Protein: Riboflavin kinase
Amino acid sequence: MKTLPYFCRGEVVKGFGRGSKELGIPTANFAEKIVDRLPADISTGIYYGWGQVGNGEVHKMVMSIGWNPFYKNTKKSMETHIIHDYMKDFYGEILSIVIAGYIRPEKSFDSLDALISAIYSDIEEAKKRLELPEYQALRDRFFCSTSDKIMNGH
Structure:
């Protein structure tokens, strides 16, 4: 995908309410207007990169972009799981992410347990890939610069 890495920033909004409650894997969701502005060559699937809530620390993240076939969603979403334990929800905060790479296409699953297992596998894959020097450099490029000028884009 030519558009990667892709930087995105927006307010965290309420999603479908399944991440924490049903899956045990909390996610932060972007508003539809952010999802609708994704470049056309960012296909649906599972991605990895870096995320920051407000002015907090930068952490590894994994993200689902798409329709969540297991749930048969009618609305495309961007659901970010920041690989960090937060003590509380952060609805209304500004989430900044850089999508660094692609793990796999989205797909449906035969059971909730199979979906959860795939998500944990995606998290482990993201952690491993983000240890590579080229992805560490992306973190520095997007989050350690002194410029606040980068909005949604490259």
The chain has a mean pLDDT of 89. The helical segments are 19-23, 32-36, 112-129, 133-143.
